[in-house]
Design brief:
The structure is a single chain. It contains 11 helices and 7 strands. By secondary structure, it is an alpha/beta fold. It has a single domain, classed as Nucleotidyltransferase, domain 5 (2-Layer Sandwich). The strands form 2 sheets. It has a 5-stranded mixed β-sheet with strand order 3-2-1-4-5. It has a two-stranded antiparallel ribbon with strand order 6-7. A hairpin with a 2-residue loop joins β6 and β7. The radius of gyration is 21 Å and the shape is elongated. One of its GO terms (biological process) is amino sugar metabolic process.
Amino acid sequence: MGNFRVSDLALGRQGCPIFSALDSLLVNHATKNRAVQNIGGIANFSISPAGDVRGHYDLDTGPGNVFIDAAVRYFTQGQQEYDHNGRMGAQGRIDQKMVDEVLSGPYFQHDIPKTTGRETFGDSFAEDICKKMLTQNGAATPEDCIATITRITAQSLLDHYRRYAPVPLDEVFLGGGGSYNPNIINYLRENMPHTRFAMIDELGIPVGAKEALGFALYTCEGFVGRPLMVPRRTESERAGVIGHVQAGDNHFDLRRRVVNFWGDWAADQVLPTTKMVFEGMEST
């Protein structure tokens, strides 16, 4: 199976983020509003409202690690790829004026639904921020630039939580490389004191395996012709099966096995999965 994002586009949505249905199956709780936060190159989060597994929605908030990694490579001439444990950023001073200038840009002001990528927040954007800081402030250091760029990520996350998360937001489960950067996570904890932050490993899913789990689930659902739960607050509420089958030599035998296990259901009776149970944990 493949082309999951292309299939989502064909249904009238943006193709990314794409794991809102998975996230809601994993974290939906009867009484707690929860979020799943991914800080990869681009940062995004999904919201799963209390007691409403179908009420999930998601959005890209802007740069995650992409700016930080680009700045580290820029200042180390490619000798380092990322700011390990946020050490460089922790030694710098934040240029709040620069942070606010970047966050006044059009993407951050745009309403949801929205998605973005490196075509908007690429290495050259991060390098331009660094060059501008060094030009405007002769005393600025590489650490100052990395601290400032890190705050852009953290503050953009906070801004989007304040705009789009339910109140109260009880828990946020973290994933992605940026979740290990204390300069980001501590800022969120300080400014969201009533929200508990925890790694998604707490749910029994290794943080590095979550995306693989998502594609495995979507492959299973697509192969049996079952649509996913449609996220709310998106361009289209059209349900549909996502993913394209690339048939192998045993394709028809595998389909027979699936039908024998699953049963021969009429199309209008194949409904989205709304509950997931797996070893030692139940999503309720």
